[in-house]
Amino acid sequence: MNTTANKTPYGEACIIPEEGLAALIRAQARGCYQEKVADNLCTQGYVIRRLADGGPLAGKAAQYQSHYMRSVENLMDRIIEVLPDGYYLLTGAVGPRGGAGYYLSL
Q1: CA atoms of 7 and 45, how far apart (whole Å)
Q2: pLDDT tens track of the chain, all 106 residues?
Q3: pTM here?
Q4: Domain boundaries of the chain, sorted by first residue
């Protein structure tokens, strides 16, 4: 599977997966929120934990932030289980000021 090199806002090297790997990642999502998170991971190569679906939670959803964070962790656990040999989903500083998140690596 081919990949494209990228960098997180924090400067860590990450990869943007090509179609086959991206489809495998997207298939692990369950529900709309996880689909957005998986799509962000596939298009950017990284996900900032508190902005996992592209922006901060708003309205009543903000009251359930811990549930959404657990949902992101569950999705990432499923992705780790299906990644082919040689690909890694790493946790670390991803955001512009070192915010925690996940990124794909070789």
Answers
A1: 8
A2: 567 788 999 999 999 999 999 999 999 999 999 999 999 999 999 999 888 777 777 888 878 888 888 999 999 999 999 999 999 999 999 988 888 999 999 9
A3: 0.88
A4: 3-105
